[in-house]
Amino acid sequence: MSEESTEDLVQLAWDALPSRHRQLLEQIGASRWEIVDRPLGDVVRELFTSTERPGPTRAQTKLDNRALGMWVPELRLVLINDGHQELRSADPPTREALVTWIAWHEWGHALSVTGFSNHDPSEGARLLELAPPGIRERIRKGGYRRSQYIHELIAETYALLMRESVEGRPGRPKWLPDEIYQLTTRIGA
Fold it and tell me: Domain boundaries in the chain?
């Protein structure tokens, strides 16, 4: 069996989304993605420069260069770094899981920051304490600001709920607190 291309895997992830989520992502202009083979911070900086917009700071660019994927709201674009060492070194099943998770995570970001979602960013730190340890530690290790916790929590949980659904386990997993589940499911409602 041949290895799926990153583009094909992102398309599979897109096709697995609930139709109402795809429609909402299309409405807000978040249905485009680009697969690149370079650090994402550099790509974003160049894209901003090419559109004559002020780009991220050098410090932000350096941080973004570590990312596997990014939702760039100003450009209405999801970027995935196909050249990232974590993707290059993964075996095919792990790579497939990573690429689909990245896509779902970034679309979770797009859905969480729309005017259609209603959540209080100041609740992020409190909700992060309720999150399962794996989610909580992943967000903490990401170096995010407290004001970003809720968006990361929603994106991370969205990706995990999509994985659960695709694997035939829809609904709220027992390990996920109801408050976080309700918050995440409201974004695409």
Answer: 1-91, 117-189
The pLDDT score that the predictor gives to residue 128 is 94
The C-alpha atoms of residue 159 and residue 68 are separated, in whole angstroms, by 14
43, two tokens = 């790509």
DSSP state of 69: E
Axis crossing angle, helix 92-112 with helix 19-27, rounded to the nearest 10: 60
Assigned token pair, 136? 């909580």
In percent, how much of the chain has pLDDT > 70? Answer: 95
Residues 130-162 have pLDDT tens digits of 999 999 998 998 888 888 899 899 999 999 999
| N-term to C-term CA, the chain | 38
Helix (H, G, I), strand (E, B) or coil at 78: strand
Contacts of 85 (CB under 8 A, 6+ apart): none
pTM attached to this predicted model? 0.91
* Positions in the chain short of pLDDT 50: 1, 116
Structure tokens at 151: 């968006």
DSSP per position, 119-169: --GGGHHHHHHHS-HHHHHHHHHTT--GGGHHHHHHHHHHHHHHHHHHTT-
d(CA 100, CA 153): 17
Q: Which residue has the tokens 């779902």?
A: 104
**Integer Cα distance of 152 and 137 in angstroms:** 12
